[in-house]
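RECORD TYPE: inverse folding
INPUT: structure tokens
STRUCTURE:
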């Protein structure tokens, strides 16, 4: 359908150059339903396999293939590189404050000419144009996406994440953000690299995506828009999951889990995994190969609230010292790399194998007209499974999901930890559960340390080398820093304000992968979740806590009992593990403390909140946990 025949699109207030490009376009398709958009993803013939090709300097190039499966469309990329987000793809084209690389500094010229070339190229294509609300249907900001029709799967991924909405439902509007997709430009202008350019004004955030993997644009690009809006309006979209945990005694606790990539956000909403005999494998000693099991009868019931982008919008706050959250998405971009065979997560498997409507899969080995299975991952060129297979699942397909905003009782923060032994000391010395005051909680979120490879992004050589040799890298403020377009100090101030305003929230750190010499994967996070819920809102009195040996870890519980079983004290105090010891623990604490000091020093500018400066200076002076509590009292 042409633009002229689309009065709803005509009611959208567009920049003149964008309106001109659409007016010159061959045709503009505005799907009337999700079903119509899904049919477009399969190409003119409707499958069984559709090749998404573009002319690159006179030569056809396949960017992706779309396979028609019985339960959805399986999208695959010929290049391994395109199957995960490039962490260095964001470029800023405007002159607003930013700490991110500016387009002109990287490419040696202004973006304006390439922006016009992009619009000119789009004007020569058949396009799909879809409206969406950045931030989800309920709280979102009216926005627009302009996408080549042969890449309709990208449009489907976007509206599945943000929620299907029509122009008629929104009514006449001025877009707060516009997303443009021009895949061949990565070859003609950017040497094959993923590049996503952000061009901001105070009222419009434009995203130019020069790639077809939706991670850095349809997913994290929209996150960037929300962070930019929040910076203008004084609120945060957290990089977090949240879940309501209902104990067997019907006590309810809402836990919000944050952390760098791989820090356990998705896992916080997952059930505790059990062995075939029903026991829980808490961990296995990496030196002695001794397993440590727990036996729990009935565990708590989980009701997901948010999965990855957690909206802390001012319209839902109560002003009573709580933090109220809502989901910023209508669908979840779920990574299924940890699914290797049938039966590992029956509820999720049922939802994606027999969905209410066809889904979109990424890097899943789909066979035409057969069922796309979440554990059949596409193989990379090295013959190994792609580490970043995904499926987009609407929230409404998730069992027990909560649609209303919820007040958070506890904010947990997950950190991937390497094994630590006396033979090989590392910073993997965090106990199962560390209770911290707000000041320490803020510091951990400023840095968001990531100590293990993240399968959802392609690492730089420097990062790969650092992590391979037991080092850490900082993911940055709130762990949302990779997607933010503003300044680090501005984000740090906003995060500190949020923490201070929500003074009834409790803060806990929890490790995954390892505790000292024990390989635990995500068991520590799951057992901590269970324990906090059974305490009733995560309440742990001061008399149940004692300072950790490393002050950055705040306090540790004196003991933890669940169903009458006492967690091994050495899981709470890794320094007492016979394979670790005080010397290795202290060496790990020194690694961690030095890293914190190095990273935190970067925030000491004149723009930093004075309290934030005091907190950081306490760390630089090797302050005690009591010093941090003096700055920000704990809520018991």
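DESIGNED SEQUENCE:
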């Amino acid at each position: 359908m042409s633009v002229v025949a689309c009065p709803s699109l005509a009611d959208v207030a567009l920049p003149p150059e964008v309106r001109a490009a659409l007016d010159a376009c061959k045709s503009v398709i505005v799907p009337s339903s999700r079903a119509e958009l899904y049919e477009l993803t399969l190409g003119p013939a409707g499958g069984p396999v559709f090749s998404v090709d573009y002319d690159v300097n006179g030569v056809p190039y396949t960017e992706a293939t779309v396979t028609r499966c019985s339960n959805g469309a399986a999208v695959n990329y010929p290049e391994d590189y395109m199957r995960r987000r490039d962490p260095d793809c964001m470029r800023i084209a405007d002159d607003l404050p930013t700490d991110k690389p500016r387009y002109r500094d990287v490419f040696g010229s202004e973006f304006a000419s390439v922006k016009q070339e992009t619009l000119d190229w789009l004007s020569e294509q058949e396009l799909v144009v879809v409206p969406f609300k950045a931030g989800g249907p309920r709280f979102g900001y009216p926005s627009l996406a302009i996408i080549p029709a042969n890449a309709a799967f990208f449009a489907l991924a976007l509206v599945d994440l943000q929620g299907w909405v029509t122009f008629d439902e929104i009514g006449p509007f001025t877009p707060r953000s516009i997303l443009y997709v021009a895949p061949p430009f990565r070859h003609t202008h950017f040497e094959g690299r993923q590049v996503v350019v952000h061009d901001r004004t105070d009222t419009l955030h434009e995203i130019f995506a020069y790639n077809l993997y939706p991670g850095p644009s349809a997913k994290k690009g929209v996150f960037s828009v929300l962070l930019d809006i929040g910076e203008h309006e004084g609120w945060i979209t957290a990089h977090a999951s949240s879940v309501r945990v209902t104990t067997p005694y019907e006590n309810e606790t809402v836990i919000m889990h944050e952390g760098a990539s791989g820090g356990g956000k998705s896992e916080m909403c997952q059930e505790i995994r059990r062995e075939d005999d029903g026991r829980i494998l808490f961990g296995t000693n990496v030196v002695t190969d001794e397993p440590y099991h727990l036996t729990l009868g009935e565990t708590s019931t989980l009701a997901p609230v948010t999965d990855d982008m957690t909206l802390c919008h001012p319209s839902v706050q109560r002003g009573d010292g709580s933090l109220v959250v809502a989901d910023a998405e209508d669908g979840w971009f779920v990574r299924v790399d940890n699914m290797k065979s049938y039966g590992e997560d029956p509820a999720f498997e049922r939802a994606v194998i027999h969905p209410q409507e066809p889904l979109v899969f990424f890097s899943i080995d789909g066979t035409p007209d057969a069922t796309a299975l979440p554990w059949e991952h596409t193989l990379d060129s090295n013959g190994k499974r792609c580490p970043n297979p995904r499926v987009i699942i609407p929230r409404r397909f998730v069992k027990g999901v909560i649609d209303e905003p919820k007040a958070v009782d506890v904010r947990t923060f997950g950190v991937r930890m390497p094994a630590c032994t006396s033979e090989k000391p590392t910073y993997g010395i965090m106990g199962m559960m560390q209770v911290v005051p707000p000041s320490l909680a803020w510091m951990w979120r400023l840095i968001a340390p990531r100590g293990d490879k993240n399968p959802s992004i392609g690492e730089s050589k420097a990062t790969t080398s650092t992590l391979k040799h037991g080092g850490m890298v900082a993911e940055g403020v709130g762990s949302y820093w990779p997607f933010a377009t503003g300044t680090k100090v501005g984000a740090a101030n906003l995060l500190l304000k949020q923490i201070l305003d929500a003074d009834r929230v409790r803060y806990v750190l929890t490790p995954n992968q390892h505790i000292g010499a024990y390989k635990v994967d995500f068991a520590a996070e799951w057992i901590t979740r269970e324990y906090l819920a059974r305490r009733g809102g995560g309440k742990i009195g001061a008399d149940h806590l004692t300072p950790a040996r490393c002050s950055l870890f705040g306090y540790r519980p004196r003991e933890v009992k669940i169903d009458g079983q006492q967690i091994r004290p050495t899981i709470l105090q890794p320094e007492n593990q016979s394979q670790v010891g005080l010397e290795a623990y202290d060496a790990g604490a020194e690694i961690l403390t030095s890293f914190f000091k190095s990273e935190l020093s970067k925030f000491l500018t004149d723009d930093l909140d004075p309290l934030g400066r005091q907190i950081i200076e306490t760390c630089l002076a090797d302050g005690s946990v009591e010093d941090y509590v003096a700055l920000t009292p704990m809520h018991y």
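NOTES: Residues 531 and 562 are 7 Å apart (CA to CA).
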